[in-house]
Amino acid sequence: MNIRKLFCALMLVGILATVAVAADITGKWKSEAPGRDGTPQLTTYTFKVEGEKLTGTVSGRQNDTAISDGKINGDEISFVVVRNMGGQDMKIEYKGKVAGDEIKLTITVPERPAREVVAKRVKE
């Protein structure tokens, strides 16, 4: 019976340690991707993590836009940015996987193909 309790305690510690390490994305991240005209488009992500809640901003050609519905679960993140384009609000969905100082993001904009970018941690 004691071995079972020890095993459960070790599993719990392992899970909590994995979540704590993977959830450490607070700070600035940058990605670069070709724009529609081929010009590089630089985007800055400023993240703040509180437990499983992810907040912050996404900055690019359209200034700072607040992150909503942000979640972090282990090494997976997701959030939404709502931007006004042509007088209409457009919901842009981001889903990603954290690997050290990189986040591989899939960005989904309605009625457009999804695109992928890699955001890298800004060392300050």
What does this structure look like?
The protein is of the alpha+beta class and 124 residues long. It has a single domain, classed as Lipocalin. It has one helix at residues 2-22; strands at residues 27-34, 40-50, 53-60, 63-73, 76-85, 88-99, 102-108, 115-121. The longest helix has 21 residues, at 2-22. It is globular and about 65 Å long.
Domains (count): 1
CATH architecture classification: Beta Barrel
Give the strand order, joined by hyphens, for the main sheet. 1-2-3-4-5-6-7-8
As residue ranges, the low-confidence spans are 18-22
Overall geometric form? globular
What is the mean predicted local confidence, pLDDT? 86
By CATH's scheme, which homologous superfamily applies? Answer: Quinohemoprotein amine dehydrogenase alpha subunit, domain 2
Tell me how many strands there are: 8
Tell me the series of helices and strands, N- to C-terminal: HEEEEEEEE
Task: Tell me the name of the CATH class.
Answer: Mainly Beta
First and last CA, distance: 49 Å
Q: What portion of residues belong to β-strands?
A: over 45%
Looking at this protein, list some descriptive labels:
1 helix; 124 residues; alpha+beta; Lipocalin; 60% strand
Characterize this entry briefly.
This protein has 124 residues and is an alpha+beta fold.
Question: Layout of SSEs?
Answer:
Blueprint: H1 2-22, E1 27-34, E2 40-50, E3 53-60, E4 63-73, E5 76-85, E6 88-99, E7 102-108, E8 115-121
Antiparallel strand pairs: 1-2, 1-8, 2-3, 3-4, 4-5, 5-6, 6-7, 7-8
